[in-house]
Amino acid sequence: MLQLRVLNAQAFVSSIIKRLSTYAVVFSRVPVGLRTRAVAARLGAIGVLLGRTGFHTGKIRVRSVNKGVRLMTNVTLLSASIASTANASRRTASKAAFFDRDGTLIYDAGYLDDVSKIKILPHVIDGLLRLQAEGFVLYVVTNQSGIGRNLFTHDFVGQTHEALRNELLQYGIVIEKFLYCPHVKADDCCCRKPKLGLLEDIDVDWSASWMLGDKISDVQFGLNAGMHSLLVHPNGERGVLFQTVPDMQKAVEVICANEAHPQR
Ligand SMILES: [Zn+2]
Q1: How far apart are CA 79 and CA 73, in angstroms?
Q2: Ligand 1 center to residue 150 CA distance, Å?
């Protein structure tokens, strides 16, 4: 059964919507700003459904409570009709896109040890927005062995991810979770990519999900998890089990083309 959640913009920030089968109606008198833009972008995932009630993808207008009540009524009716007609009563887990961090989302600064060194790579903002609008839940998954080497701390990595989260949020991009392994290879832990320990508590539709990274270990990680995998590197080596693309723009084109004509 489709779920309907009623949130306000403030609550949304601390309560990220976890499933595509979750619908949010935002009640807020707050002017459209950072938070409401983020909400609207997240709602882009269900824009097609809401479109039938006159709303457009990614352009949900956050209005007064009265108008919100009317919208909720529409969505409730819509949910009921979808549930009865589209076999939507047992929605599977959502599809997701997982991104390596250094060298994929942001410039690889060697061991990033200063939050001011964060610099988002070209095409990343547009790419993430497009994937989000396609209904992908976004995750970052990164090996941070600098912790194990005592180059920086867990706290620092937390601050880095908070800074990156906030920067992306300004564009309306919501990162569901930042997952990182703090170990060095010699620790032989179970969470360093390409091992899958970081995904232990993650519940997504793996066969509909993608892993993007600039290293073979990223691609191997994605393949190990049963995801489509792309090596995103201007002169990355070619593989039999994965595609290689030069940058994020091309990566997102490949994913969207597959969405239109699935090859699984
Ligand atoms: Zn680990």
Answers
A1: 10
A2: 14
What is the Å distance from ligand 1's center to 217 Cα? 14
Centre of ligand 1 to C-alpha 193, Å, is 8
Q: What is the pLDDT of residues 146-193, one digit of tens each?
A: 999 999 999 999 999 999 999 999 999 999 999 999 999 999 999 999
Structural domain boundaries of the chain? 3-90, 96-260
Q: Which residues surround ligand 1, an ion (CB under 5 A)?
A: 181, 183, 189, 191-192
Q: Which residue has the higher pLDDT, 12 or 211?
A: 211
β-strand partners of 23: 4
Task: For residue 77, give the H/E element and its range.
Answer: helix 65-85
Cα 228 to averaged position of ligand 1 atoms, centre (Å):
23
Torsion of CA 205, 39, 49, 124, to 10 degrees: -60
How far, CA to CA in Å, does 117 sit from each of 5, 31, 112, 254? 38, 32, 7, 30
CATH 3.40.50.1000 for domain 96-260, yes or no, is: yes
Residues designated catalytic: 100, 102
Provide the token pair at 69.
């009540």
Model pTM score: 0.66
